[in-house]
Amino acid sequence: MSFARFLTKRLLQGAFVVWGVVTIVFGLRVIAPGDPANVLLPPDVDPEVRRQVIADLGLDEPLHVQYWEFISGIPVGDLGTSLTTGTEVTSRVARSIPATLELAVAATVVAVIIAIPLGVVSATNRHEAPDYGATLFSLAGISTPNFWLGVMLIIILSVQLNLFPTSQRAIGIPAVFELLFAGQLEAAGEGLVTWLWYITLPAITLGTYFTALITRLTRSGMLDELGKTYVRASRAKGLPESLVRYRHVLRNTLIPIITVVGLQLGTLIGGAVITEFVFDWPGLGQVLINSINSRDWPMVQGSLIVISVGFVVVNIVVDTLYSYVNPRVGFDG
Question: Where is the ABC transmembrane type-1 domain (predicted)?
Answer without folding.
Answer: 97-322
